[in-house]
Amino acid sequence: MLIARLIADQQGIETRVDTATRALADAGMPVAMAGMLDFCGDVLQFALPHGDAAQLTALLVEHFGDVDLLVADHEIEVPRLFVSDMDSTMIGQECIDELAEFAGLKERVAAITERAMRGELDFADALTERVSLLEGLEETAIDRCLAERIVPVPGARTLVATLTEKGCRTVLVTGGFHHFADPVAERLGFERVVGNRLGVHDGKLTGELAGPISDASTKLATLEEERGQLGEGARVLATGDGANDIPMIEAADYGIAYRAKLKARDAANGRIANENLTSILKLLGIPQSDWVEG
Known about the structure:
Elements: E1 2-7, H1 13-26, E2 33-37, E3 40-48, H2 53-64, E4 69-72, E5 81-84, H3 95-101, H4 106-117, H5 123-132, H6 140-148, H7 156-165, E6 169-177, H8 178-188, E7 192-196, E8 198-201, E9 204-209, H9 216-228, E10 236-240, H10 246-251, E11 254-258, H11 262-267, E12 270-272, H12 278-283
Parallel strand pairs: 5-6, 5-10, 6-7, 10-11, 11-12
Antiparallel strand pairs: 1-3, 1-4, 2-3, 4-12, 8-9
């Protein structure tokens, strides 16, 4: 069984559904049902008795374009756990890149960040290198950066607040830093934060991390730890955009890549192409009348 949901442009929708249905049947994946969800007006759902999820996704993208979508091997339901990346997922920035600008190093640091997020560099090595470049920066620059540069992406607060209202536990897990993640989590309503800690001495950054590195394995371990406390059958949602998010995205029932790098997008069974995270609520089947504005 496969269930696919996508947020569809209504213009010419019937023709595109018919064309996609024929293409799926020709690929050996007959469609049992295709139609709009009554409680989420612009969400189109396909139900298939069997098929390959990756092939289904590819055919839907071919016929509907780069849309927001989610594919699952079961009836889609509201998750009981939500684990999310922070940088370029819950906020629109990469914190270390923005902080580096206060040291006059943004271009240099951002180039390393981009390569790491594409999976071209070892994350731990790239993180250590970038942090070392910030040695001597005044700690007060972090507060300025938070106030002047860091902005949640559209829909982030509504997504977290609505899932919380539905009984879902929310965890922010980042390869970034607690100096940023703690206030971001408080602002958005996350219940737990996992991340790296910047070394500070005499009010200045030491250029080192204080404690172990939070990386892809940390994100996966956090998801599995939290899932283990919920019991068998609890559905898990994970969102991220970079290569270090792939393990937790693959482990989740609903692994959604948000405006993601290619490797992360290909690893996910869901994707958000537009900017607003409330698309996730639509794909989960939560009507807008139930949304909680953050």
